[in-house]
Amino acid sequence: MYNVKSKHAEEFIDHQEILDTLAYADANKTNAELIDSIIEKAKLRKGLSHRDASVLLACELHDRNEEIFALAKRIKEDFYGNRIVMFAPLYLSNYCVNGCTYCPYHMKNKHIARKKLTQEEIRNEVIALQDMGHKRLALETGEDPVNNPIEYVLESIKTIYSIKHKNGAIRRVNVNIAATTVENYRKLKEAGIGTYILFQETYHKESYEKLHPTGPKHDYCYHTEAMDRAMEGGIDDVGCGVLFGLELYRYEFAGLLMHAEHLEAVFGVGPHTISVPRLKRADDIDPDAFDNGIDDDTFAKIVACIRIAVPYTGMIISTRENQKCRERVLELGISQISGGSKTSVGGYADGTLEDDDVTEQFDVSDTRTLDQVVRWLMERGFIPSFCTACYREGRTGDRFMTLCKNQQILNCCHPNALMTLKEYLMDYASPETRAIGEALIEKELEKVTNPKVKEIARRNLAEIEKGSRDFRF
Ligand code: SF4
Predict the structure, then answer these.
(1) Could you tell me which residues come within 8 angstroms of residue 248 by beta carbon, excluding any fewer than 6 positions away?
(2) pTM, rounded to two decimals
(3) Which residues does ligand 1 sit against, CB inside 6 Å?
(4) For the chain, does the N or the C end have fewer beta carbons within 10 angstroms?
(5) pLDDT value at position 351?
(6) Ligand 1 pocket check: which of 103, 107, 202 to mutate, most ligand atoms within 8 Å of Cβ?
(7) Which residues of the chain are under the pLDDT cut of 50?
(8) pLDDT tens-digit series, residues 70-92
(9) For the CA of 217, the nearest atom of ligand 1
């Protein structure tokens, strides 16, 4: 039944293949010889199959686990350097017709305040986000064909791109909306979105159907095949993810990698990003009611093994996780984080809204401001990057992946990260953050080995200092 190239979800995410993979991983979790050979394969930085990666995830040999963590760290450095891309979620509407049992926006929740932003309210949100320094957003809406039709999402994207407040601009809008048709994906592509993001929640079909008892999202195959339709609609950057805590994490891990293998086999390009959210407390949702929660050590191991299995795929962590947890996984593989996030509808423009708390999709664990997050990253030697150049230069899909697989992306990304950081420091940072940032830029510039790139970067940084904006390689 397992067929990586099949168009049918139950064939490319074949349940039996996952069970066989888990049995194989379990049988080999202390097989030093096999584990060593997989680690050697991983060192080639070409990725691993779901079977091999599952053995590493299951590995119970302490010294080999240390090697796995060390390798993940090295691969992260090789492909992404020390830059971390910044973004913020923007919730447009929490109207939803689905019955997801882990999300407070589910239709039966009658006491949560329902809200849908008008274009004027979106404008206010975007100005507030621009004034923080954000350049990259992830749009979020519930699924509701009446309240949040595709036309509303398209109009909102247009509004967002049109707002230029002071030196601010949103340069990349990623979209996280419910599974839809090829035609709608084509419209999103035409609207100039960056990545289309859709979390699978769980790859386990039986659990999926129980967790989504009502609404269009109940259809496992339609949901699981959404990325295929998105790619058919011309979107070549897609972002996958599962909600850890719903099912057994090893099952999700294998499913996630099989999904990536499927997209690569059919479209020649795997997911642009993988998100690793964990189930969190929210309004009427108690995470303890779900049996499959994972601890921080397991979470770190998952991040490390994904990093090794798909080295060229970005990895995203949100403010669902606290500072300590984010700190640990940043080194192991995370390449994008959110900062200063509000997970309520209309939460940025007016944080004092009375019903602010009750429209949140989940409780934010990392409540620091963007300035604090930026400073914290720099103090740890990371470069916070507000860069969106690849997407705007057409380096998406397989063009991006080719650069990334050849480790060439560093030649573009490193100077671009420094230039966008400089913009942030000039326009939005506190004096303390700016001082740390200026010193970091100077130090990082010395690492650029190509004299021509270095010269152009220096020139551009000087222009940014004088007030020019939006340089990119
Ligand atoms: S997860 Fe999405 S589809 Fe499900 S209830 Fe929440 S907003 Fe609706």
Answers:
(1) 204, 292
(2) 0.95
(3) 96, 98, 100, 103, 105-106, 142-143, 178, 217
(4) N
(5) 63
(6) 103
(7) 352-356
(8) 999 999 998 888 999 999 999 99
(9) 3
